């Protein structure tokens, strides 16, 4: 797509002119979709007037006045159809330095000058960058969005764009199709351009505009324009130089800027390039000739930089191991001998167009970083113990740190002092996250093992706290590998990494994989630190939680008890960690049906958390939620309700509306409302909880199964059984796959599916599910557990529905006996058992025996739930099995 008759463009971000309105998307397989979005009046408002919106843009200024050789490509962009045709997304593809961004920037400036707008430029190298770019548009339209979480502001921007035409949106440097997939199909009322160097099957993008290198004639014209050297004597040398540069626009711009600034002849520049090819062509360099020639260019540029300020080159090599996203300048404060030296070096780099510099951030282009990493010698591997002794005998000086090690050290020092789960520090952690991840990927034989493991582990911990366990997993795995290799399998730091990895696996629902890691972490801590160390208590706590996740509550109980005893003895009765241990022990006791014992622990845990951490801390919300669950288990739903409401309010404010913990709080509140008969109020909470869990944890996570089950229970209570049925089927399928066929949660799923089948009149299909659910509960929880009573009662009701009243009678009598013994004579579940038993006796024509049971059931229900709800709860002749509401349980942080 070049035109030798037209002057070519030069520069990585040069701008060209064009006339087209709409959104420009660069990438393959552009698909244009037209949708109509119906919004209520004034649902979306910008804080600026329409005429200002039409002029709104964040386009960078062109970095070169020369733009040639792209007329054909510009014509394609100008001819993009307007919104409403079904095709609005277009990609521009090519290698790094080919001029993709320059082409689109040139078109965008012309588009804006023609009176179209807004035009918004978004760095799309990661999903986080895309979210931030959309959020910045929202803030530009209305500054109030600066206070919102980035994902909320981004969502607002997308919705606003859907309700308006005539805009142009540019996703620049897109790397992964998945980063744009959530947006492209929805952004159909304007035009989108995507630039990408990745030749992948991008959905929602049609036939791409593929940019190739410039023709020799156009490349020569570019250099002549930039250097203002048009004489015949210069032409031959410049032509030879363009051939050496591979006619790559970015390389031409860099070379032309160097020649113009230094007044160096093209012949001298060419001689330097040819004299140092090996220095820029490392053995690991890809075979792409274009990348090879741009590597040569930067070798020369680095030589010039070295003459101007050697520290600038040192600093640039360090920056090569950060991410191609804005790096806070404070990270580089100690990169050189003085702060002034750092500022001066950054100024030199900016003058040579090697970085983008603001008062707060430093950004290096990804291609510059790639070339620098290729041309930097590999780090020296740390010597083995025997080699250390030999080096000492030879008295050799310690080699200087490799740039990757310097970058690691700087980022390690720059990490916030606050814990990654402290929400107040999250903005700073988010700014550093891409750089922490990048520096970790480029550490080979580093001597800074401890710092590397810490950087990886803390980045993983931050992602885990944000509910992104899938992204935390590879970081935790690598941190463990590094630590174990460097410090040995029995070091306390190895135990820490094992426990962190176990926690992440548990958050992903992979409890069976987490268990041996947690067990080994405990073993190491007990040997290395002693049986009464607070860290040992933490390892006990985590192992107990994993046992509970696996449904092995009896094995978890002594571990949780011992963890509490150690923590209270070492840290005191009012320490936040003591509250955490109390809460975990309480949840274990509740799982064992010992809710009355759990209640006292949960109340004390809440009291400690509020006093130590404050009323609005996420841990306080956790304590409120657990206490509410325990109260509900005791049938005290009215007392649980305000606690569950407050827990949700705190969690949403602290962690955001889309965090997995917010889904837990929504689910708990929904269950409490349903227990009080407010099923219509519970329904939207259950729906939202499911939506969050699926988005953050995935469709196959055990928590997603829990949300499906809760939503189905609410639909059943609303007599919407046909809608509940597929949800219950899917919930059972997930639970069996994730937790196994014999897990207590699988029993819950079987029982709930059986209930829905019975509600649909399919009792014969429900019967084997109820029988299997009872078998699992008795085997895992014991014959006297409240859940076993629930299974007995439900199986009895199904048998009665099938006419087997005599067989049902013994099951319901046993269910009542268990409920009275474990929950007490006045618990709502005891009322359910009485009511079900009375129904069976009536079916057997034993009405005189049934009547006092029915009266007592109604009396208990009225006292516990109120007269209105009691009448609908205790329906003496209803063949439908009555079951207790499901609860969400939360797992405390390690």
From TrEMBL:
- Which species does this protein come from? Streptomyces coerulescens
Q: Where is the composition biased (Low complexity)?
A: 9-22
Give the protein's recorded name: Tetratricopeptide repeat protein
- PANTHER family according to UniProt: AAA+ ATPASE DOMAIN-CONTAINING PROTEIN-RELATED, ATP/GTP-BINDING PROTEIN-RELATED
Please name the InterPro entries in this protein's record.
NLR-like (IPR053137), P-loop_NTPase (IPR027417), TPR-like_helical_dom_sf (IPR011990), TPR_rpt (IPR019734)
Q: Where is the composition biased (Basic and acidic residues)?
A: 885-894
Highest classification ranks of the organism: Bacteria, Bacillati, Actinomycetota, Actinomycetes, Kitasatosporales
According to the UniProt record, where is the region Disordered? 1-27, 874-894
Gene3D superfamilies from the UniProt entry: P-loop containing nucleotide triphosphate hydrolases (3.40.50.300), Tetratricopeptide repeat domain (1.25.40.10)
């Amino acid at each position: 797509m070049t035109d030798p008759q037209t002057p070519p463009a030069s520069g990585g971000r040069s701008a060209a002119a064009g006339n087209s309105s709409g959104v420009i998307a660069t990438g393959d397989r552009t698909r244009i979709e037209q949708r109509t979005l119906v919004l209520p009046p004034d649902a979306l408002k910008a804080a600026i007037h329409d005429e200002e919106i039409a002029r709104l843009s964040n386009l960078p200024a062109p970095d070169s006045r020369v733009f040639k050789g792209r007329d054909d490509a510009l014509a394609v962009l100008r001819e993009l159809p307007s919104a409403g045709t079904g095709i609005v997304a277009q990609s521009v593809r090519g290698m790094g330095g080919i001029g993709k961004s320059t082409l689109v920037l040139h078109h965008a400036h012309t588009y804006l000058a023609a009176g179209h707008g807004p035009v918004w430029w978004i760095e799309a190298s990661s999903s986080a960058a895309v979210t931030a770019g959309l959020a910045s548009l929202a803030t530009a339209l209305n500054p109030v969005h600066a206070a919102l979480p980035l994902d909320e502001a981004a969502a607002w921007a997308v919705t606003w764009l859907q309700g308006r035409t005539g805009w142009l949106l540019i996703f620049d440097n897109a790397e992964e199709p998945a980063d744009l997939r959530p947006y492209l199909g929805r952004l159909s009322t304007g035009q989108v351009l995507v630039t990408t160097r990745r030749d992948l099957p991008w959905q929602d993008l049609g036939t791409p505009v593929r940019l190739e290198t410039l023709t020799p004639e156009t490349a020569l014209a570019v250099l002549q324009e930039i250097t203002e050297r048009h004489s015949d004597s210069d032409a031959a040398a410049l032509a030879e130089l363009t051939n050496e540069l591979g006619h790559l626009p970015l390389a031409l711009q860099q070379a032309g800027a160097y020649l113009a600034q230094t007044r160096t002849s093209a012949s001298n520049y060419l001689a330097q390039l040819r004299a140092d090819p090996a220095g820029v062509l490392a053995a690991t360099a890809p075979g792409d000739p274009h990348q090879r020639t741009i590597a040569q260019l930067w070798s020369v540029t680095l030589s010039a930089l070295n003459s101007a300020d050697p520290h600038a080159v040192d600093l640039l090599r360090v920056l090569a191991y950060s991410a191609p996203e804005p790096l806070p300048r404070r990270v580089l404060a100690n990169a050189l001998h003085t702060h002034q030296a750092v500022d001066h070096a950054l100024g030199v780099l900016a003058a040579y167009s090697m970085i983008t510099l603001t008062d707060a951030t430093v950004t290096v282009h990804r291609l510059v970083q790639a070339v620098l990493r290729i041309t930097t010698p590999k780090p020296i591997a740390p010597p083995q113990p025997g080699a250390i002794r030999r080096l000492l005998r030879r008295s050799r000086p310690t080699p200087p740190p490799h740039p990757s090690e310097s970058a690691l050290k700087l980022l390690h020092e720059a990490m916030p002092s606050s814990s990654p789960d402290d929400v107040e520090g999250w903005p700073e952690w988010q700014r550093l996250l891409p750089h922490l991840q990048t520096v970790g990927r480029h550490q080979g034989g580093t001597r800074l093992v401890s710092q590397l493991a810490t950087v990886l582990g803390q980045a993983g911990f931050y992602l885990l706290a944000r509910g992104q366990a899938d992204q935390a997993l590879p970081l935790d795995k690598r941190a463990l590998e590094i630590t174990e290799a460097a410090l040995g399998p029995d070091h306390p730091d190895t135990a820490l990494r094992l426990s962190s990895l176990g926690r992440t696996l548990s958050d992903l629902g992979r409890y069976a994989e987490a268990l041996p890691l947690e067990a080994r972490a405990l073993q190491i801590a007990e040997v290395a630190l002693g049986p009464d160390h607070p860290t040992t208590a933490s390892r006990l706590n985590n192992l107990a939680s994993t046992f509970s996740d696996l449904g092995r509550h009896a094995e978890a109980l002594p571990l949780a008890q011992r963890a509490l005893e150690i923590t209270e003895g070492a840290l005191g009765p009012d320490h936040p960690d003591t509250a955490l241990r109390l809460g975990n022990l309480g949840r274990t006791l509740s799982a064992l049906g010992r809710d009355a014992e759990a209640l006292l622990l949960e109340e004390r845990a809440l009291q400690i958390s509020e006093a130590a951490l404050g009323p609005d801390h996420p841990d306080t919300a956790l304590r409120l939620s657990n206490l509410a669950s325990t109260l509900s288990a005791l049938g005290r739903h009215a007392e649980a309700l305000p606690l569950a409401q407050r827990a949700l309010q705190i969690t949403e404010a602290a962690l955001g509306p889309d965090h997995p913990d917010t889904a837990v709080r929504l689910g708990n509140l929904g269950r409490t409302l349903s227990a009080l008969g407010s099923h219509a109020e519970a329904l939207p909470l259950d729906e939202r909880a499911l939506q969050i869990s699926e988005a953050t944890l995935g469709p196959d996570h055990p928590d997603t199964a829990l949300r499906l089950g809760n939503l189905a229970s609410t639909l059943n209570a609303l007599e919407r059984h046909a809608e509940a049925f597929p949800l219950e089927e899917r919930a059972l399928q997930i639970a069996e796959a994730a937790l196994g066929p014999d897990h207590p949660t699988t029993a819950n799923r079987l029982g709930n599916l059986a209930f829905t089948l019975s509600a649909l009149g399919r009792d014969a299909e429900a019967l084997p599910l109820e029988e299997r659910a009872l078998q699992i509960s008795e085997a895992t929880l014991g014959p006297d557990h409240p859940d076993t009573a629930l299974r007995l009662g439900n199986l009895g009701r199904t048998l009665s529905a099938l006419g087997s009243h005599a067989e049902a009678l013994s099951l319901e009598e046993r269910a009542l006996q268990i409920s009275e013994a474990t929950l007490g004579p006045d618990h709502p579940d005891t009322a359910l058992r009485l009511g079900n038993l009375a129904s069976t006796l009536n079916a057997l024509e034993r009405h005189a025996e049934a009547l006092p049971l029915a009266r007592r059931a109604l009396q208990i229900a009225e006292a516990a739930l109120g007269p209105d709800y009691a009448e609908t709860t205790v329906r003496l002749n209803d063949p439908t099995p009555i079951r207790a509401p499901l609860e969400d349980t939360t797992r405390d942080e390690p």
